[in-house]
Write a structure and sequence with these properties.
- This protein is an alpha/beta fold.
- The protein has a domain of 194 residues: 3-Layer(aba) Sandwich (Rossmann fold), CATH 3.40.50.150.
- It contains 10 helices and 7 strands.
- It has a 7-stranded mixed β-sheet with strand order 3-2-1-4-5-7-6, sandwiched between helices.
- The longest helix is centred in the last third of the chain and has 29 residues.
Length: 296
């Protein structure tokens, strides 16, 4: 099936600015999505601790255990795969990305042969053997375009969930994280998107994802924690400020300010209720139990 979401060029416009830039921005975790901050003691946590806590949430939500196989759709710089392989002694972890820089980072940096990356959209991914779990963090925001209406968006999300179901073993788990629209009318979505920062992309709504998943998955767990992203963005802005002098010669003052201003706008969206941050755990639906037991 064709890729109906953000093109390879749109993804690379943002994510291929440079690995050295993102290393300064994101810190040692190299995770470009919201961490999971402690509600009570979040102020005492470091960004790295919040990111590891998030990764551990997804690893647990995916139900991974020793010897199993993982597919990471939108794998970023490979942090989830590395942590999952080490923590759960997985036999294989495959990541998908459209970013040349991310793929190069994983290929050059990973010393574990169980971790591989493919530079291709999920729509073109073929695999003979199903996976035990799929994780996708911060990727589904790029699966639908701004000009799409609700029905078209739902179709894109449905195709993704069908892909996940087809590539999972019976009873396999899917763990998903996404920024979502909250207090924003559907007809106003496209005019309120930061298309100069994330081209050709739109956000889902929480219910859209649940509805699109329903033919293939049971929803096991879900939460919405916008402040997780606010706290993460504050740390990224701080990282840009303290690394400004190191970044300017290669990436320029304009790019540094562009990211700082975008992150400040995003913080307002999360703090004011315009956008949320949802995490989902799904399990693949099995056969109708009643049909095997003569009940109705």
């Amino acid at each position: 099936m064709p890729n109906k979401g953000a093109s390879r060029e749109a993804i690379q416009f943002h994510y291929d600015l440079g690995n050295r830039f993102y290393a300064r921005l994101l810190g040692e975790s190299m995770i470009y999505s919201a961490g999971l901050w402690d509600v009570v003691d979040g102020a005492k946590m470091t960004l790295s601790e919040a990111q590891n806590r998030k990764l551990d949430w997804h690893i647990a939500a995916a139900g991974l255990s020793s010897g199993q196989r993982l597919l990471d759709v939108g794998c970023g710089w490979g942090g989830l795969m590395a942590r999952a392989v080490a923590a759960k002694d997985l036999s294989q972890a495959v990541g998908l990305t459209l970013s040349d820089e991310q793929a190069a980072w994983i290929e050059e940096g990973s010393k574990d042969p169980r971790i591989t990356v493919q530079n291709r959209p999920w729509q073109e991914f073929k695999n003979e053997e199903p996976f035990d779990a799929i994780v996708s963090i911060g990727a589904i925001e790029h699966f639908a375009r701004p000009e799409m209406d609700t029905a078209a968006k739902l179709n894109c999300y449905s195709e993704f969930f069908e892909f996940c179901s087809r590539n999972l073993v019976d009873g396999g788990r899917l763990s998903l994280q996404s920024i979502i629209w909250m207090n924003m009318a559907p007809q106003n979505e496209s005019s309120n998107l930061p298309l100069d920062f994330f081209p050709e992309s739109n956000l889902p709504r929480q219910l859209e994802l649940v509805q699109a998943a329903d033919p293939w998955f049971h929803l096991v767990e879900m939460h919405n924690r916008p402040r997780d992203y606010s706290r993460t963005l504050r740390q990224w802005i701080w990282n840009l400020r303290v690394n400004r002098d190191a970044l300017k010669p290669e990436f320029g003052e304009e790019n540094i300010l562009r990211y700082q201003n975008a992150f400040a706008q995003f913080m307002y969206g999360f703090d004011s209720g315009i956008t949320g941050l949802s995490r989902f755990s799904f399990v693949k639906k099995g056969p109708d139990w009643s049909s095997d037991h003569g009940t109705s």
